[in-house]
């Protein structure tokens, strides 16, 4: 995991983030994802200055192993000087070795964030889940960490002021907020009370705004008037602009509109010219559509 100081903002990786959410649902299924309906509690991963460094790190690691349902994985945590924030040795197990940057000796509040990312690497290794591209694979790790209830720690590690900045993980702060918002929509969870960083709270709000736009794009019935008007015009011509969130297929009675599920981004197809309920075969969401 990178030990980033220069913070990039916005949503430059949004396509990869959305692809990661789809991949997670396809691998675990909707029922599998629902096993993680409760995020890891803040009390379980809190790490005070008075606690023994190595025993505290082991305790936090065990809490994250338990949360991610890795009961057989034993984490051995050590600290050393290194260019990155953390790394994990992905051997066959049952022991996994996690190394944390020496700076976490003094910044213990962020130990849980660093461990969450690395322990999720172990989960993905066991699930045989990943992308061939290293960069996209790290984005997948951040997305899975967040969507399965441990990634709020990574966003809370984001701090930025006029003198210094810190961000852990490969996603931007706003992208972490986006994934958290996607999770919150599914499980009715509000992560904002857990943030100790004001900048993390701001990024969560910006991510939530971006996530809300997914629920207001045609042909979803919740789309705004202007978006519905553009959709109706495109439907009459049977084609949509390249940047539209939908595409038309076929003509006449067999015409269909294809669009991504706002929850898992799976591509859906429904008949045009009517009001229908579409059920996503991947995440199980039932969507009100005005096509």
Short summary:
This protein is an alpha+beta fold.
Low-confidence runs: none
Main beta-sheet annotation: 3 strands, antiparallel
**Order of strands in the sheet with the most strands?**
1-6-5
Could you spell the SSE succession in H and E letters?
EHHHEEEHHHEEHHHEEEEE
Shape: elongated
Number of strands: 11
Helical percent range?
40-55%
Tally of individual helices:
9
Please state the structural category.
Answer: alpha+beta
Give the N-terminus to C-terminus distance in angstroms.
43 Å
Radius of gyration, in Å, reads 21 Å
Q: Work out the oligomeric state of the chains in this entry.
A: single chain
Q: Classify the beta-strand content into a percent band.
A: 15-25%
Mean pLDDT: 92
Features:
291 residues; alpha+beta; 3-stranded antiparallel sheet; 3-stranded mixed sheet; 9 helices; 11 strands; 17% strand; elongated
Write the layout of secondary structure elements.
Layout: E1 3-4, H1 14-34, H2 42-45, H3 53-67, E2 74-80, E3 86-89, E4 95-101, H4 111-127, H5 134-147, H6 152-156, E5 159-160, E6 165-168, H7 173-187, H8 198-214, H9 225-237, E7 247-249, E8 256-260, E9 267-271, E10 275-279, E11 286-290
Structural description of this entry:
With 291 residues, this protein is an alpha+beta fold. The chain has nine helices and eleven strands. It has helices at 14-34, 42-45, 53-67, 111-127, 134-147, 152-156, 173-187, 198-214, 225-237, and strands at residues 3-4, 74-80, 86-89, 95-101, 159-160, 165-168, 247-249, 256-260, 267-271, 275-279, 286-290. A three-stranded antiparallel sheet has the order 1-6-5. The chain has a three-stranded mixed sheet with strand order 2-4-3, with helices on one face. The chain has a three-stranded antiparallel sheet with strand order 7-8-9, with no helix packed on it. A hairpin with a 4-residue loop joins strand 5 and strand 6 (165-168).
